[in-house]
Amino acid sequence: MTDTNPYNPYNFLPLQPTGRNETDTANTYAPEDMIKIYEQQFLIPVPEEKLTEFLPALKSFYDIDDHTLDVSAIIFDAIAESAIIYNHKVKVGDYQILGELVKEAIEYDEDNKNDKDAEDKEIQAYTLECKRTFFINEVEIPYHFNLFIYGDGYSTLTKKETVLEKMYWFVRGRFEENLLDDTEDNDSLDSINEQLASLGIREMDLTTIDEVISYVEDSIIDDAMVEALNKLLDAAE
After folding, report:
1. C-alpha distance from residue 191 to each of 29, 195, 203 (Å)
2. How far apart are CA 60 and CA 23, in angstroms?
3. Which residue in 123, 144, 124 sits closest to 132, CA to CA?
4. Is the dihedral of CA 66, 68, 71, 72 positive or negative?
5. Is 119 exposed, middle or buried (0-12, 13-18, 19+ CB in 10 A)?
6. pTM to 2 decimals?
7. Which residue in 143, 145, 108, 144 sits closest to 125, CA to CA?
């Protein structure tokens, strides 16, 4: 934020209105610009003492009303390819398969020894090194993981190299008791925020990190990646 322009102290994006609403009380904007207006409510850093002034300044700059802001939120939820998590914009990018399928043989245990379909048979499983790109406030961050495919299911094992991967282990270590002995190897909240700051990303509190990682876990495998994986599996069998 800068005060070099007294007419735009918060550096709002200049957007061209498409006209006026039916009652001539507010400007109208194209859907993609409505998304930009919505995002700025959360992404522009505002000092605490200026919080009460910020929203009126936004509405005044774009000459819009509360209804316009409500509509911008609806448009964002409908067509935006990103999520607003508190004061951060998070977006999922492309996936990349980094290697070839590695065949893993898993034998049936004693509980299944009487299963006639399981006799003299191994369950086929595969592992595969993958990467998914994410963007936090437009900063690209890779997320590497090992994909374990077993029958119709899968699981992932996240590496611990990039700050996003370290955030995953930080969250998991806080909630899974069986990892308590290993949490001393995890980065602290202060360390994670130092790494975020080095990338130009605003600091996050515990709740924000939890929500970001929830978004990541919901996004690492999408339909396009499933289709690509099925082709690899078909070729391997």
Report:
1. 41, 6, 11
2. 17
3. 144
4. negative
5. exposed
6. 0.86
7. 108
